[in-house]
Specification:
CATH superfamily of the largest domain: LCP protein
Number of strands: 21
CATH class of the largest domain: Alpha Beta
Radius of gyration: 22 Å
Shape: globular
Strand order of the largest sheet: 13-8-1-4-5-14
CATH architecture of the largest domain: 3-Layer(aba) Sandwich
Distance between the termini: 38 Å
Strand content: 15-25%
Number of helices: 15
Number of domains: 2
Length: about 450
């Protein structure tokens, strides 16, 4: 996340935050599975029959939307507890606010996240931007957030082509629906919040989590780096979720009906079934890590309003991120001369095993070391669910990544990604996927 802060953030509520990117990622994969499962339940079709019926004529994204690019408004809404200690979400505010640009020709997605406490004008008064949804639903949220970002409006005055609203329990319910997930926990986590119904207790190791445990895990922020570490855990769990959905969607008959229930209960969207299928099909091979990344509009200070403290957005950063959202989506192409000029001895590399194949990362590291690269570390990735080998480079150009791909002798995905934090060094991260590991002896 690119977030520049020069003042302390306002006090956060104890209500659960939805994982960044959860809406866009789960809808594309999970709802498709839900539609397939619904056919099985309603029409008594076998799983292969239902899948064939759903994908035998999947429209292209351009056909479904009649354009080459669409913009989605992605909202995650919170909940509170009444006097009887029962959760309710009427007049809920949007704890997660994201704008997603989906370019079908380039098969790329760009996401910009807006802090929920960002200063904005809602119904003529200055307040937090997340009040727009609670006061006027999707229509007002579209107007306020669209105006804030400076997105052009269509003939009907709408800034976004479609919307997706995900309730806070979506992650919890989805994890339960697919039978839980296995999460590698790297540190001891202990926290209790009786008012917020939050009890988090984990020790290092591979932990099989149910929905409630997973939701607590991604909400935990009481360690050294607080929100940055929480964001990393959130992205870790979403990646594990997506990997399991991709891996098990053909064999998971038991949980099909539960998936249908999750999306009927926890997701509200004006995407049509054909549009959902088209999105799932278009982005099915897009690396999970690239879909998970969202640049966050940071802030330069705070401001007191009648409704409480807001954060003043970084106008320069906002302009830059919105320009990227509206601009051309083209994959960076390194010039052959630039690739050839890369000196391996000047490139630091971190190699991680995302395949689950024992020794895969070590083998890649040794091969690269023999070619002159500097290997900073070898270890495990955040999950063993990577189907595609990824080369993540935080430099402005893609020459280093292209050179590494050439030396690997394998068509790995080269991703231009920002540094995870200011403390990160300039190392290139390679995650060895199953595609590479399956070709090694």
């Amino acid at each position: 996340m690119n977030e520049r802060n020069s003042a302390a953030p306002p006090q956060r509520s104890r209500r659960g935050l939805l994982t960044y990117g959860l809406a866009s990622l789960l809808v594309a994969v999970g709802i498709f599975m839900g539609v397939v499962a619904d056919r099985m339940v309603q029409r008594h079709e076998t799983l292969p029959e239902a899948i064939v019926q759903q994908i035998v004529r999947v429209p292209t994204a351009q056909e479904a939307f009649h354009k080459d690019r669409v913009y989605l408004l992605l909202l995650g809404i919170d909940y509170d507890y009444d006097v009887h200690d029962q959760p309710f979400s009427s007049h809920a505010r949007s704890d997660t606010i994201m704008a997603a640009g989906l370019d079908f020709a380039a098969k790329q997605a760009r996401l910009v996240s807006v802090l929920r406490d960002t200063d904005a004008t809602v119904n003529g008064r200055e307040t937090k931007i997340n009040a727009a949804y609670s006061e006027g639903g999707v229509k007002l949220a579209d107007a306020v957030i669209g105006n804030f970002l400076g997105l052009p409006a269509d003939a009907r005055g709408r800034h976004f082509d479609r919307y997706v609203v995900v309730r806070v329990n979506a992650m919890k319910d989805l994890v339960d629906a697919i039978g839980g997930i296995d999460v590698p926990v790297t540190e001891t986590l202990n926290y209790d919040d009786n008012w917020g119904h939050l009890h988090i207790h984990f020790k290092p190791g591979l932990v099989h989590m149910n929905g409630e445990q997973a939701q607590g895990y991604v909400r935990f922020r009481h360690d050294e780096c607080s929100d940055p570490c929480r964001t990393k855990r959130q992205q870790q769990v979403v990646r594990i979720l997506l990997d399991k959905l991709k891996r098990d969607r053909v064999n998971d008959l038991i949980h099909g009906g539960a998936l249908v229930d999750v999306f009927r209960r926890d997701v509200d969207t004006n995407l049509s079934p054909d549009e959902i299928k088209a999105l799932a099909w278009t982005f099915k091979d897009t690396p999970t890590a690239s879909l998970l990344h969202a640049d966050t509009i940071g802030y330069v200070g705070t401001k007191q309003t009648l409704d409480g403290e807001t954060v003043v957005p970084d106008e320069q950063q906002r302009a830059t991120l919105v320009a990227g959202l509206l601009g051309p989506y083209t994959a960076a192409k390194a010039l052959p001369s630039g690739v050839a000029a890369v000196n391996p001895s000047a490139v630091h590399v971190v190699v991680e095993n995302g395949s689950g194949v024992r020794g895969a990362a070590t083998q890649v590291a040794e091969m690269l070391r023999s070619r002159g690269y500097v290997i900073d570390a070898v270890g495990d990735a955040d999950s063993y669910g990577y189907d595609t080998t990824q080369i993540e480079d935080a430099s402005a150009s893609s020459e280093r990544g292209a050179r590494l791909r050439a030396d690997l002798g394998f068509a790995a995905a080269v991703l231009t990604t920002p540094k995870r934090s200011a403390k990160d060094n300039d190392a290139v991260r390679i995650v060895v996927g199953r595609d590479y590991a399956s070709k090694t002896p």
